Each structure stands twice: as structure tokens, then as C-alpha cells.
Amino acid sequence: MTEYLIRRSLQSVLVLFLISILTFAMIHAAPGGPTQVLLAPGLSPEAAKIQAHNLGLDRSVPVQFLSWIGGMLQGDLGHTFKNNIPVGDILWPTVGHTMVLMIAAWLLSLIIAIPWGIYNSTREYGLSDQTSSFISYLGFAMPTFWFGIILQQYFALKRDWLPLSDMYDMDKQGNFGNLLLHLVLPVTVLSLGFLAAYVKYSRSSMLEVLNQDYIRTARAKGLTERKVVFRHALRNALIPIITILGLDLPILVGGAALTERVFNWPGMGRLFVDMAVAREYSVLMSITLVVSVFVVIGNLLADILYAVVDPRVQYGRGGGTAA
Amino acid sequence: MKRKQWISSITVFALIALLIVGCSKGNNTPGPASPSVSPSTSASPSPSDSPSPSPSAQSKDGGTLTISTFSDIVSVNPIFINDTSSGDIEQLVFAKLYDLDRQSNLAVEPWSLAAELPKVSADNKTYTIKLKNTAKWSDGQPITADDVKFTFDTIRTEETGAPGISQYDKIESITKADDYTLDIKLKQVYAPFQFSLYSSILPAHILKDVPLKSLKEDKFGVDPARTVTSGPWMFSEWKQGQYITLNRNPNYWGETKPHIDKIIYKIYADQNTEVQALLKGDTQMTEAVPLMQIDAIKKKDNLQVILKPGPTYEFIQFNFKDENFPDKYSPFKGQKTRQAIAYAVNRQGMVDNVLKGSGGLMNSPFLPGSWADPGAEAVNYEYSADKAKALLAEDGWKPGKDGILVKDGHRFSFELQYNAGNSRREQVSTIIQDNLKDVGIEVKPKGIDFATWIDQNITPGKFPAILLAWSLNNPDPDGESIFSSKYFPPTGQNGGWYVNKKADDLWVKGQQVVDQAERAKIYHELGKELSIDLPYVFLYQYGLPQAYDASKLKWEENDRPESSMGYGYLFHAINWWVE
Description:
Number of helices of chain B: 14
Number of strands of chain A: 0
Strand order of the largest sheet of chain B: 8-9-10-1-11-22-12
Radius of gyration of chain B: 24 Å
Shape of chain B: globular
Shape of chain A: globular
Number of domains of chain B: 3
Structural class of chain B: alpha+beta
Number of domains of chain A: 1
Order of helices and strands of chain A: HHHHHHHHHHHHH
Distance between the termini of chain A: 17 Å
CATH class of the largest domain in chain B: Alpha Beta
Number of strands of chain B: 24
Largest interface: A-B, 43 and 59 residues
CATH architecture of chain A: Orthogonal Bundle
Number of helices of chain A: 13
Family (chain A): Belongs to the binding-protein-dependent transport system permease family.
Subcellular location (chain A): Cell membrane
CATH superfamily of chain A: MetI-like
CATH superfamily of the largest domain in chain B: Dipeptide-binding Protein, Domain 3
Largest sheet of chain B: 7 strands, mixed
Low-confidence stretches of chain B: 1-55
Strand content of chain B: 15-25%
InterPro entries (chain A): BPD_transp_1_N, MetI-like, MetI-like_sf
CATH class of chain A: Mainly Alpha
Helix content of chain B: 10-25%
Oligomer: heterodimer
CATH architecture of the largest domain in chain B: Roll
Organism (chain A): Cohnella endophytica
CATH topology of the largest domain in chain B: Dipeptide-binding Protein, domain 3
Mean pLDDT of chain A: 83
Distance between the termini of chain B: 54 Å
Keywords (chain A): Cell membrane, Membrane, Transmembrane, Transmembrane helix, Transport
Structural class of chain A: mainly alpha
């Protein structure tokens, strides 16, 4: 297992390196570089050259990449071109804000979706199943920002029940209760999206397991349905769900730019859009890298959790991945 | 040599930057013609033209005002400001050497650093400036002639990289006569210079040891602790992407003190979110409301919208260079052809249907109502497809097989570029397409990402035709760097490669006459010339509707916002109060 982990981690580093080369190249290939966006338009070409030199923008792209990656390895994410602020100062708070929002939405939807999906799998096409299907379709089909705006209209504008946007009221910065109030609407919007998917997954995964021979055997032994479902079926049904969760992990940091926009949530999704417009390469690269790290970790975690949930899965030299 | 002096254009460009998001804030000149640079200490109220303010109540001190915006600041170091949000904060935290009155004349206000209007020498080259001896920085240090000299010397040094350099590069020398008096000598007579004195001043005692080349990277303007300021409020806190807090400056030196204790400048993701926050009561003022949202705001009793044309004007710019067209032929070279396009485009329809009260027609590059405005001397092209067709025929265009005009084997079809996502330009470009189709011209509107557009089309002057706006931040009408053939890309902003020797000379003449009445004549003639020759089709001026909560935010009639000026939505904010 340890050996496997080491091998996977080394692979991950390589993957991250390749991702960063790719993103760096792509960002620099986009027309309209920082020189146009950042340098004052009234400047003469000579003065613009001086500025570009000061910003290190006159170096070749590979050299810029090496200097960036060199800083990165020492934990220096670089500075913004336009006002020389350390990227970390801007980035890390937004990562935190996004995670607060996304984890709340994610946990809430898991707590509801998995039991619901299981329940539905045992009562196929019942009222509950139909309802969840309806909600799923709604969740998939309805643009989140639109749903967000509707909620804002009813619960924040027509009635003064909930805050409209932001993380805190201006005079209650850092107040936990105030944060909870501000979470209600965006979490509702985001949960609906997650919920739609997770109920479907857990239901179908459960159904598949329930039709297996060993379940029939268990039933034939005379076990109660409850025991059949929870003891025998559930653990097996969780495996594909874990895969999905692992793959979804990066969403927790990448966030939902649109939802953040509607609720004016100061998160990373919003930051990315703003910085893309401003051509702030170092911020964009850092965000991409943070998200990539989570993708890699998410995949790794999913693999490890397989082993925890399913004893048949074993990692090691030559050992293939079962399941 | 110089490129320079595009005072207006610099900011103009900054403006474009704002337009990317579909908005901007205004800047410039209008106001009833005033014959000369007259000292006026406070605005003259003109009762008819503004939403009625709250019935004059007693002003009161204290409270918090929350203003919304949709983009974060970059830095509040005044000499590097190139975006509206940073400019907004500048208005509130920095005192200026001189201010502007409601008619955009240079003025000495109780909050200006200067004690009296500049004295101009007989040869019109030396400006003598006298400062108040009471002004102080927020750290208690006095504001003196050293600070003023330091500021202008810093801006005019190329190494600094200040965007406003062209406003100051006519300076030959700055001499300090005593602590509160200085003489600025120009290399040549340059009338627009008076408005270069409408400027914030840097604290020399904080910045004098910073090498000019690294001034831009300095924490001054970014770190509130280092940003010593001179205005009624201070730059107290900046939460990136969220808000900026400005607390009242306890060391404020002006005879007039601010009423409001704290101003929060809150950043929203976009304009629609801003409007929601205003409706909810989270904010009390927003500088620019999307036209679509105005009705929703008007429905709320406590909210007011100020809807007036502002100092920004939109136009269709033609390119005269053949190589910018697929068939290496610019169809715009005939003056009659350009006039035909002006007739064919329904400008009044755009003003009525797209701008919905926030705009008015433009016939020249000088804003209606300003002293430079040629008024009826400029040609007003009234919508007429018939006149357009006649002019096109006179200029040699004949209908081709598909109904599109042809001349010398060239089909009259061109691409009209604008920045994608700007809904006003999307609508207007479609109207232009329809209108020109009626006279046999094919228009292909094309939305392009803003940064890419600036980089690949506007700056190098490589486009067939564009739909763009200039925002005139500086009250001076000089526009040489936009229109003169001395200012082709990449150094100038005459991206259409327009040549008109008569106009070139008039722009220069306009800079060399200091008397405003005499200057006005030159600009009237220029306006007339350009309205006939049409480097652009001037479309309309427009403003961004400002909305505020009239039950909370109050001002006397004299201190109401002034839509016709740059940053006019914050005009006299020092005298506002909150209930």
C-alpha cells in the first residue's frame, strides 16, 4: 500500500508539472497579453518597454515559465502585475471562502441524497422515487444562477427573511451565526445541483447490487430486508459513489463561479473570472494549480477509500485495481 | 515629440477599459458656456435638471454610506490610476490642487489645496500657484510646495511610467518660490495645461526616497498603512474583491468638514447584483445602473435615479487604410460616402430606443453644452435613407446583382467591430446593420473579447470599422491625439489613419490660444469641419444612470451629483450626509 502511494504521488507530481506547462502555454497563447491590459495606454512605446521590462514581460515564455515554477517550488506564488500584491494574499482567502460554501452544500446534499437514493432503490417507481426523479431533472435542467435569482427575489427581496448576498453583513464580519444565515440561499442552490446527481447515483448503484446473486442468496437465507440492504448491499453500492465523490472533489475548490457571482460570494470562481479578464497570469496559474492538486488528491483519495470499503480491493506490486 | 497631449484620450482609453464590462463613468465638460476661466467657489444651482433632492433638511454628522461598484480597485496612488474604481477612491481620500465647479471650470473650493486660481504670466507660459498654508496630510505633516513639485516632476519623468505623463510633458521647469508658492514654466504656450492642475498631490515626505522606476511597485496606494492621504476620508481598509473602508480623516484640515463618518465601497460581481443590493437596502448608492433595471428601481419609493447624458460619446470610426480590408480597398474614402452613412443611420432612434433617456445626439467631438460645442454650426445628419442613397450614387456606388452597392469592382461590405458582451453596442450594431442594408451596404457586426480587441485592432489601427466610445475625463476639448495625422498608431490614437490638414492645424491652434472665448471659436470651426468631413459618424453622448436611496442619502441642491462631469456622481460628497 505504501509503495503504491509513493508511486501514485510521484505520478501526480509529474501530472501537475505537465498541467502547469500546458496552462502556462495556453494562457500565453491567448491574444491580448498583460502588456495591453496592464500598461497605461497613454505611455509611449519606449516607456511601455521599460514597464514591460520591470514586470519581466519582455522575457521569452520558457524563461518566464522557469522563473514562475522556480518561485512556486519555494512556495512563492508570485505577484500581480497590476499592483504588485503577493498572489497568496489574494488567493488563499478566496479558497477558504469557496470551501466553506462548497463543503456545506456538499455535505448537506450527501446527507440527504444517499439515504434517499437507497430508500428509492428498494421502492422503485414509488412516490418518493418519482419525486426525486423530478427534482433531479429540475436540478440538471435549471441553470443554477437562475434558481439563485428566484430564491433571492422571494426570500431576500420580497420578504426580508434572509440576506441577499455576501458572506457577512458589513457590520458583522466574522460572526458565525451571520455566516450561517448567508449560507442558506447559496447552499440551497448548490445542493440542488449535487442532490440531483447523487440521488441518481446511489439509487442506480444500489439497484445494481440488489440484483446480484449474492443478495438473492442472502434473502434466501431468510435475512431481514433491512439486513440485506445495509449489511450486504450498501458497502458494495458505495464503491461507485465514492468514485464520483472523488472526482467531484475539485469542484469544492474550483467552486461554482456562477453561484458565487449571483450571491456575490468572494470565492475562487469569481476571482478566476476577474483575473482572466485582467490577464493576471500568476493568479490564473496559481488557481489552476490549486484545482489540479485537488483533482489529483481526489483521485488518490477515491482509490484509497475503495480499499477501505471493499476488502477485495488490494493495492500492491502487480496488483490490479479490482471492482 | 511626441505623442502626447491627449489628455482626454488617455482617460478615454481608460474609459474603454470600463466599457468592457458594459459601463463606465463619466467625465468631462458640459455646462452652460462660460466665457472664460472664471473663479467660482461653488456651483450655481440650475433647478430644472435634476431629480428633486430631499427637501432641504438639516445636515447631520455621523453614519455610514455604502456605495457599490462592480470592479475592485487596483491602487489608489493617484499618479497611476487608470481605472474608475481606483479613481472613485481617489476622489474621496485625496485633496486636489484645484477642483472643478459644476460647469467644469477650474475652481478653488474650501477643499482645494490651492489658495487662489493660478496667475498666468504675460507670455502665457508661466503659472504661479499659491497654496493654502493650513493643509495637512493624514499623518499631520503640512502639505507644501515641495509636495506639488514632487508630484509633477514624478509624473513627467518617463521612468515613472505614469499614464498622465502627456499632461505634464510641456513643463520646462518647476520652481519653488517659498513653502506655499511655486512657478511652473512651460516650454510653449499650451492652453489645456490649466486642467493639468486639476490633480491630486503625492506626499513627498513618504515617497521621495523611492526610486522612480519602482514607484509603481511601492505599497503606497495598496497598503492602507503606508497610504498617507489628504482628503476628507482615509484609505482605512481594503479586503480584496470585497470592500474598501474609508474612515473620516481626524486630521482633516479643510474649513468644510465631511459629515459622513465612514464610507464603504463595496464590490459586487456585476451590475445586476449591485441593483439587487440597492433594492434590498444593503447599499445606498450605485454609480451605474443597467438601463434594463431602471424601472425596477423606480418602483421603490425611496430610490431615485439620475438619468442624464454624460460626458462619454459613442461613434462609428472608419478606417482609411486599404490594407485593413480583405480586398485591400477602403470603401470609406469618399466624403459623400461617409455623409451617406451618417444620413442612413437612425441616430435619434438609438437615443430613444436604446439609451432610454440617458443620452443625446452628438454631431462633433465636443460635448453639447460645453464651451467648445459648435452647436448648430456642426452638421446634424437627420435620418434619411433617400439622401443617403442619392449621395452614394453621386459618389459612384451602383447596385450590384445581390442588391449590395459596388464601385470599381468592390462590393460595399464591411465588418463592424465592438467588444463582445457590451449589450448597448450589440443593439446599436444591429440597428446600424439594418439601416445600412436599406441603402445597399452590407455590415457584418463582430463582437470581440475586449483585451484582444484593444491589442490586435484598436492600438495598431487594424480594423475596417469600429463601434467605440471616448470618455472625456479632462474638461479640456483638445483631441489632437485622436484626430490628427501626427498621431497615427502605435504612438497616437488616430487608429483610422484619418488625414485632414485643415483640422490638424486647428487642433494645434487650439492649444496655443489661452483666452477661452478665442479658443471656443477655433473649436467651433473644428467641430464644423469634422462634422462635414466625418472621420467618425458621431452617434450620441450617453450617461450612466446613478441611483441612490433618497431616504438615507441627503444633500443640499448645490451639492447634488453632476452627471456631466467625470466622477460627477461623487461631486461635493464632502457635503453629503446620511440619515
